[in-house]
Automatic annotation (TrEMBL):
Main subcellular localisation: membrane
Localization of this protein: Endomembrane system
Species annotation: Prorocentrum cordatum
Keywords annotated in UniProt: Membrane, Metal-binding, Translocase, Transmembrane, Transmembrane helix
Topology of the protein relative to the lipid bilayer: Multi-pass membrane protein
Family the UniProt entry places it in: Belongs to the cation transport ATPase (P-type) (TC 3.A.3) family. Type IB subfamily.
Protein name: P-type ATPase A domain-containing protein
């Protein structure tokens, strides 16, 4: 392609909200072998909402006294509530092992209070969504500011709650539980695990709350798939002839359900930011000895995706919010529209393919 053609294409792309940082990115994009898509926020809208929750009565037994004390000291809060806290419009909450109704009194409130307090310190999309759900529970005591707050990337968050007798609360995926509390994790309530698995198989993001190593419950969040995702995947496969992968930090069952919904056949789940870039590097290797390396495009949104965006031959960052991701990317899609990557890829092909 002539420098003029590249200039025109870059200008056209910019008009459509695709900021291309180099002529090289435009050229490589015309001959891609593999496209890797992030799940949360890229294939899905990145706007999860709480679908359902499950609480364990058994775990509440050790917390009940501290919870009663907290309620007693919270100004204006009811001393004890008999009716379930969750409003009819809120998520459905399943009680596990709640035959002993006495000990489940206050369980739901306590569950949402701990979750809300813990997630109030995190800026992850999961955290914001869980916090909103907790804030909507009527009559809950004011949420606490978590102490010793700690994030484990791709796993979950932890804090101490002095208001509740100094317990340590953790929320995150099962891997996080197994890595931080291997002994307790192996004894997790079977009914709770089954509830979690069922929710994951339906494509929900499921996170588990445990307090001092005892699971108190889990939340299932639904992040809707972008309407254009299936069409984008089929364009990449059929028109570009590229191999399409999903790469996500989320659980395998959830990832596979979402992948199936949009027609993606290759899935890499439970990835950390570093393993996402390793995944890209692996896909770049020639398939057979003597062949050239494969050209890989990574499309992601989150700040977590920066190493993968940088590793890819072409890194495409979706949406303007994540500035770090934009810096590591070769192409920045100003709008948060997955379809815009097709605009860019089509322009790049039109520029470089016709002249070959
Ligand atoms: P993705 O690759 O889907 O963008 P992340 O790397 O951001 O995912 O997170 C991966 C997983 O880590 C989440 O699916 C969730 O299980 C867990 N996680 C991370 N942060 C939090 C949090 N603040 N609260 C609960 N779970 C979290
Ligand atoms: Mg992400």
């Amino acid at each position: 392609a002539t420098p003029m053609a590249v200039m025109v294409a870059t200008g056209l792309a910019a008009k459509r909200g695709c900021l291309v940082k180099s002529a090289e990115a435009l050229e490589v994009s015309a001959r891609l072998d593999v496209v890797v898509l992030d799940k949360t926020g890229t294939i899905t809208k990145g706007q999860p909402s709480v679908r359902a929750a499950a609480c364990c009565a058994e775990a509440f037994a050790t917390l009940e006294q501290a919870w009663e004390a907290l309620l007693g000291s919270a100004e204006g809060a009811p001393k004890r509530r008999s009716a379930p806290a969750t409003s009819s419009s809120g998520p459905t909450v399943q009680l596990i092992g709640a035959e002993d109704v006495c000990s489940s009194n206050g369980l739901e409130d306590c569950f949402w209070w701990i979750l809300g307090s813990l997630e109030s310190a995190s800026d992850h999309p999961i955290a914001r969504c869980v916090l909103t759900a907790a804030q909507e529970v009527p009559g809950l005591p004011p949420l606490a500011a978590p102490q010793d707050f700690e994030v484990t990337a791709g796993r979950g968050v932890r804090c101490t709650l002095s208001q509740l007798g100094g317990v340590t609360a953790r929320v995150g995926n099962l891997t996080y539980f197994m890595e931080s509390m291997p002994e307790q994790a192996s004894q997790t309530n079977q009914e709770l695990l089954q509830w979690m698995e069922g929710m994951q198989q339906q494509g929900n993001i499921v996170v588990l709350l445990h307090v001092d190593g005892v699971p108190l419950g889990a939340v299932a969040l639904q992040d809707p798939v972008r309407e254009e995702a299936s069409w984008v995947v089929s364009y990449m496969e059929r028109t570009l002839g590229a191999e399409v992968w999903m790469c996500t930090g989320d659980n395998t069952a959830t990832a596979q359900c979402i992948a199936a919904q949009v027609g993606i056949r290759h899935v890499m789940a439970e990835a950390l930011p570093t393993t996402k870039s390793e995944c890209v590097a692996k896909l770049q290797r020639p398939r057979r000895r003597g062949e050239r390396p494969r050209r890989v495009c990574f499309i992601g949104d989150g700040m977590n995706d920066s190493p993968a965006l940088a590793q890819a031959d072409v890194g495409v960052a979706l949406g303007v919010g994540a500035h770090i991701a934009v810096e590591a990317a070769d192409v920045a899609l100003v709008r948060s529209e997955l379809g815009d990557c097709v605009t860019f890829l089509a322009l790049s092909r039109a520029t470089f393919r016709t002249i070959l």
